[in-house]
Amino acid sequence: MKIVIIGAGSLVFSSRLTADLLSYPTLQKAHFALVDTDIERLDYAGKIVAQICRHGGYGDVTWSLHHDREDALPDADFVISSILVGGFEAIESEIDLPKSFGVCQAIGDTLTPGGIMRCLRTLPVQAAIAQDVMRLCPNAWLLNYTNPMAMLCWGMFRAAPGIKLVGLCHSVQGTTTEWAERLKVPMSEVDFRCAGINHQAWITRFAHQGRDLLPEIRRLAETPSLWQQDTSRMEYIKHFGYAVTEASGHNSEYSPWFRKTPEAIDRYCPGGGWNGAPGFIKTLYNRPDWRDTMQKMVDWETPVDLVRSQEYGAQIIHALVTGEPEIIYGNVMNNHLIDNLPAEACVEVACRVDAAGVTPQPFGDLPEHLAAINRTQINVQQLAMLAASESEPERVFQAMAMDPLTSAILSLDEIRQLTGQLLQAHAPYLPEAWHAKTLAAKPVFYH
């Protein structure tokens, strides 16, 4: 069995995923082909895998290091993608430039100007990965962990028709476990339903031993202590009646309601951090200490936890190999899985995984007001995906203009100006097709 990890030099994720995979005895004879464009990080990744195998007693595991993914992909059974294009400098510009216009993002990796720009520089690479998989290992499953999840998966399905692809996140399992702990019930005994889009899926059923716990969730959402910890998500429950996935910092960016003014941010993002601190993503990616961090993992001074985590990647691969079924939540093309969302959109739904593959489970209709909130995001996702696929500056402006947060704060003239500046700042990170293109200026009129 051959497992290719693209982006293996990541600070934490690659080692976490490797440890998860090797926690299954069935997978302990796999070959791991580690791929990264940064040779120094790739070297660290190989040394960390060696330590995981040593301390886990996984003596039959082999691995190889690859600077070029085309060397790694032939004969692969599974390909896992978790990459960052542009690095901290790109992230810094897509957070700071909008902030100078008054658009204050917390994370900016899913929607908003940050998510749109991340799509522009990342989708061409991800689409090429998908096409390489179809050419070099067409029977392999591609598991995508790279954000912006919905935009990228949508574009990859278009770029490589027929690809066996599922996008993976941890927000469904993280949110449902969080609510089980708050309600003091074992997660293993919870019966729930969840569907929507990545980072904005809705928990429409949450029951324990036949008892409906949604009324208790709604009651807890209106308690001051929980509201302060998880503010914008509790506002969603208070006003719309259903819990939503992902942290409040993410959630606060996806609407026009929480970040319009500094005063609103102070109210709806108390405590900062994952609750919505301005520019919080920069603290996550500005890691000048990354060499020290990875060296401590190599030295086992900071050991990798060998106990399996909640991430779906290892569960999926184990289920596909053994046929032992699992239910996971994956990002797939809708194709009428959620009847009141666009058929061509990328949605997050329950999927059965077994020897037959990854089979998305039809959900039916979401409550209509929840579908309406999702559709607001889907409009931006589609325009950003098309902008990246077509290398078209006007599409970028259109996506920015439809973005709920940006449009709540800026006029169309201001959005056009911001878009032009972002495209200029991102020129070093965009494909060659963008280099001769600029966003057309338009006259600005005053009384």
- Largest β sheet strand count, sense and barrel closure: 6 strands, parallel
Percent helix, as a range, is: 40-55%
CA-to-CA gap between the ends? 69 Å
Number of domains: 2
| Widest sheet, order of strands | 3-2-1-4-5-6
| Contiguous uncertain segments of 5+ residues | none
CATH class of the largest domain: Alpha Beta
Strand content: 15-25%
- CATH H level, superfamily name of the largest domain: AglA-like glucosidase
Mean pLDDT: 97
Provide tags for this entry:
447 residues, alpha/beta, Rossmann fold, LDH C-terminal domain-like
Explain what this protein looks like in three dimensions.
By secondary structure, this protein is an alpha/beta fold. It folds into two domains: 2-85 and 118-167 and 290-312, Rossmann fold (3-Layer(aba) Sandwich); 86-117 and 168-278 and 314-430, AglA-like glucosidase (LDH C-terminal domain-like, Alpha-Beta Complex), CATH 3.90.1820.10. It is built from 19 helices and 13 strands. It has helices at 13-22, 39-56, 69-72, 87-100, 112-136, 149-159, 171-183, 214-221, 224-229, 231-240, 248-251, 262-268, 280-285, 290-298, 312-322, 368-390, 393-402, 404-409, 412-425, and strands at 2-6, 31-35, 62-66, 78-81, 141-144, 164-167, 190-197, 200-208, 211-212, 243-244, 326-333, 346-354, 357-360. The strands form three sheets. The protein has a six-stranded parallel β-sheet, with helices on both faces. Strands 7, 8, 9 and 10 form a four-stranded antiparallel β-sheet that branches. A hairpin with a 2-residue loop joins strand 7 and strand 8. The radius of gyration is 22 Å and the shape is globular. The termini are far apart. The relative contact order is 0.14. The mean pLDDT is 97.
